[in-house]
Amino acid sequence: MWELMVKGGWIMWPILACSIAAAVLFFERVFHLHRAQIKQDDFLNGIYTIVNRGNMAEAVSICDQTPGPVAHLVRIALLHSDEQPEGLKQTINKAGISEIPRLEKNLGGLLTIAQITPLLGLMGTVLGLIHIFMVMEQNAPLIEIGNISGGIWSALITTAVGICVSIPSFAAYNFLLSRVESITLNMEYAAEEIYRFLRYDRTPSDSANETL
Fold first, then answer.
1. Residue 103 and residue 182: Cα distance in Å, rounded?
2. Residue 191 class from Cβ within 10 Å (0-12 exposed, 13-18 middle, 19+ buried)?
3. Where are the domains positioned within the chain?
4. Cα radius of gyration (the chain)
5. What is the pTM of this model?
6. Mean pLDDT within 75-100
7. Taking a C-beta distance cutoff of 8 angstroms, is the pair 197, 50 a contact?
């Protein structure tokens, strides 16, 4: 590995830095999105049961203790349950929209790495070719393969390594994007369900018993 780094030239170092950054961003997002995705049906049913018992404060407390945007969205809905229907709907929608940037955090960085590492590899190829032609010009007409092998190695290695970093980075980006879309769908479902519950399904006597 070290031999490849040396033969690839200085351009290998930014490519290596990109690969490390991509790994860090990927595992950080995987951990965050794993915690953010919950079983929303079980969670909502539990909240409905508690609210129907007249204990709104306990329901809000459970939302505080549950990670993820679904729990945060439900918490906002519970805290604003006394608003008019249109106002409540707007509040829930705003809460959902505010969660999207948190879910998509660092995805742009991962996509950028996937896009620039092939370009870094291409730059290494161009630099390798420049080195080859400089050596050929200096040693013409007697040119040995050893004189130009360094440039050939640099051209090939940087391109290969750049592609090897780009492919998994792009795959990781699309995987994380699919997870974000899944959580977003869960949020939309939870928003509709909690709104319907607070407006139509909640026991009428609960509104008189709410204490936060």
1. 11
2. buried
3. 11-114+166-209
4. 28
5. 0.81
6. 88
7. no
State the DSSP string of 142-166.
---HHHHHHHHHHHHHHHHHHHHHH
Is 68 strand, coil or helix?
A: coil
CA–CA separation, 17 vs 106, rounded Å? Answer: 16
Neighbours of 45 (CB within 10 A): 12
Element (DSSP H or E) covering residue 97: helix 85-103
Distance CA 164, CA 101 (A): 29
Which residue matches tokens 């200096």? 138
| Residues 148-163 pLDDT 10s | 777 787 888 889 999 9
Single out the residue of 123, 124, 118 nearest to residue 170, CA to CA. 118
Indicate the Cα dihedral angle 84, 90, 95, 96, nearest 10°. 130
CA separation (Å) from 150 to 16, 21, 138?
20, 28, 15
* Chain centroid, CA 107 distance in Å: 4
